[in-house]
Amino acid sequence: MINRLNNKALNMLGLAQKAGKMVGGYDATNIAILNKKAILVFIASDISNNTREKVLFACQKNNINVCRQFSTAELSHIMGKNRKILAVTDSGFAKAIMKKINEGE
Q1: Residue 27: is its pLDDT beyond 60?
Q2: Taking the model in full, what pTM does it have?
Q3: What pLDDT is stored for residue 7 in this prediction?
Q4: Which residue has the higher pLDDT, 61 or 78?
Q5: H helix runs in 1-105, sequence order
Q6: pLDDT confidence tier of residue 65, bands split at 50, 70 and 90
Q7: 5 contacts 103 by C-beta, under 8 angstroms
Q8: For residue 87, which of 22, 14, 26, 9 has the smallest C-alpha distance?
Q9: I want to staple 87 with a disulfide (CB 3.0 to 4.6 A). Which of 11, 29, 39, 76 is the partner?
């Protein structure tokens, strides 16, 4: 079970999604990474090794922060559909979400 601060981070992810400041899915996230629109990428903790390595490589190459502490179920709940990879495209939302995640550690 996620703790209260991580729940706040997930709620902020939901706000980013509703504001149109987030993309989900492998293809959309990869495009956001390559176009340097992604500020913060979320990879489900239970994603396949192959996909995880591809996304991590692209994020490292483009100096993008990555969060891997949420499950597919948690990320999918935020998007309202099955998603294992998300990218926040707004720096304000990304900073606020990272702050909540770091407070929860």
Answers
A1: yes
A2: 0.90
A3: 82
A4: 61
A5: 4-18, 26-34, 49-61, 72-79, 91-103
A6: very high
A7: yes
A8: 22
A9: 29
Q: Which amino acid is at 14?
A: G
Comparing C-alpha atoms, which of 91, 95, 96, 88 is closest to residue 20? 88
Return all residues near 43 (Cβ < 8 A) that are at least 6 apart.
Answer: 52, 55, 56, 66, 67, 68, 84, 85
Domains in the chain, CATH or no CATH each: 4-103 (3.30.1330.30)
Structural tokens at position 20: 């149109």
Q: What size, in residues, is the chain?
A: 105
Give whole-number Cα distances, 15 to 8, 23, 58, 76, in Å: 11, 12, 25, 14
Residue 1 has pLDDT above 50, yes or no: no
Res 103: pLDDT: 80
Structure-token pair, residue 96: 């606020």
Contact (Cβ atoms closer than 8 angstroms) between residue 43 and residue 92 = no
Give which of 42, 48, 44 is closest to 71, Cα–Cα. Answer: 44
